[in-house]
Amino acid sequence: MNMMEMGEVVAYLLRYRTAERVPSGGRKRRAAREGQLSERDVCALIDDAQESEREALRDFLAGQGMRLKVFEAGDYPGIAPGSRFFALLPDPELEQPPLYTRDAVFEALKLRQESRAELALWYLQLWLLLHTLIYTRLNRALSDVSRYQEATFVTRELVELVRDQLEILRGLGESAPENSRVLLDERGEDIPRRVKAFIDLLVRAGHLDLVRETGDEDVWQQTLLGALEAEQIGVHHLTHLIELTAAEGSDGERLLATAETPEAEAVAQSSAAEVQPDSAEVQPDSAEAQPGVAEESEANTMADDEPVTDEDEAAAAGSQDKAPGAREDEEPRQ
Length: 334
Description:
Layout: H1 3-16, E1 18-20, H2 39-48, H3 51-62, E2 66-72, E3 84-90, H4 103-109, H5 116-136, E4 152-154, H6 155-171, H7 190-204, E5 208-214, E6 217-222, H8 224-233, H9 239-245, H10 252-259, H11 262-270, E7 280-281, H12 310-317
Antiparallel strand pairs: 1-3, 2-3, 2-7, 4-6, 5-6
C-alpha cells in the first residue's frame, strides 16, 4: 500500500466509517466512485499491507484521533463467516479534533429561528430518549455491544417518548429548568419533523439502519458501528453541545441532568463507567480481538454529523485518478 493508496483508504473510511469483506444483511459491496476505491479494494489493501504500511496507517489515523479496528466472524453477530469488519472509531485515549462540525445538527433540526443553544438542547434530548429505547428499555448496558441487533424501534415510539417527556416537563410548571422550557414551544407536526431529522442524522453517521417497513412504519436498528462507538466514548462526544446549552459557566452536566428522563439518566451514568472493549487494532498477521480497557476521555466531536464531501475524499486520496470500476456483485457506480 503506497501513500496514494493509503490516502484513498482513509478517504473511504472517513466517508463510510466501515468496510466489510463480505457485506452483511444482503447488502451489496459499495462500488468505486470517481476518486474513490471500491469496498472490495479497500479491504484487500488493508489485508495485504505490510507491517510498516500498517504502522504508517495507524499513525496517520491517530493524528486525527481515530483508530482502525478489525473484527472477525464470531466476534459479534451479523459478521458473515469468512468476512472481516473494519471500523474507523474515535480513540478514547486520544484528543479528538473537530472533524465534524455542529452545523449539520443545527441545519437538520432547525424549523424556525431557534437559537443554537435551543437546537443543541433538542439534539441532546432526542439522543437521551433514543438511548432509553435502545438501552434502558432492553435492560442493556453500553458494554453490551453484541446485543445491537435487538436494539430496534419504530419512529412512532421515539415521537411518543418525546411527547411524554414534554408533558412531564410541562407539569413541572415554574419549577421546570428555565433553559428546558424552550422545548415546550412545539406545535403541530414539529415533534415528528424533528424526530425524522434526528434519525436521518444518525443514518448518515452510520449509527442506524432501516431494517424493514411494517405497515406504514419504518423499523430502525442500531448498527454495529453505533454500538461500538457508544461503548468506546459514551456521552463524551456531546461535550461541545452540552456546553453550548449551559446557562452558567461551563456546567453543562447540570443542564443535562435536568433535561433527561430517569431512564435516560441511567444511560448517561453508565456511559461514565469504564468498559472492556473486545476489539482489536489491525495487526499485521492476525485479526484476533485483543481485549483492553478503554479509558474515557472528553471528545469534542459529533459522530459523523456532517458527511465528508467528495472534494475532501479526493484531497485525502492525493490523486485524481479514477478508482477501479465496480464489479458485478457491487452497488452501481453513483
